Amino acid sequence: MNEKRCTSCNAPLAKTGATWFGCPDCGAQVLRCVNCREQSIPYLCPACGFGGP
């Protein structure tokens, strides 16, 4: 089973409150758990290294 995990903290994504979007730089998928999203924890794109809040 391929479980989706947060790009920032590697926590499994909950069914509610999590989000995913395309990297603004390269379009690769960035996944965010509810905690990292609400606290604006920085992330790095796994494909190109672009960073954001």
Summed up:
By secondary structure, this protein is mainly beta. The chain has one helix at residues 34-38, and strands at residues 19-22, 29-32, 43-44, 51-52. The chain is built from one helix and four strands.
What does this structure look like?
The protein is built from 1 helix and 4 strands; from the N terminus they run ββαββ. The protein has 53 residues and is mainly beta. It has one domain. The strands form 2 sheets. Strands 1-2 form a two-stranded antiparallel ribbon. Strands 3-4 form a two-stranded antiparallel ribbon. The longest helix has 5 residues, at 34-38. It is globular and about 25 Å long. It starts with 18 loop residues before the first strand and ends with a strand. The model has no long low-confidence stretch (mean pLDDT 93).
Low-confidence stretches: none
Helix content: under 10%
Mean pLDDT: 93
**How would a textbook summarize the main sheet?**
2 strands, antiparallel
How many domains? The number is 1
Structural class: mainly beta
N-end to C-end Cα span? 29 Å
- Strand neighbour order, sheet with most strands: 1-2
Overall form: globular
Number of strands: 4
Number of helices: 1
Keywords for this structure?
53 residues; mainly beta; two-stranded antiparallel ribbon; 1 helix; 9% helix; globular
What is the topology?
Blueprint: E1 19-22, E2 29-32, H1 34-38, E3 43-44, E4 51-52
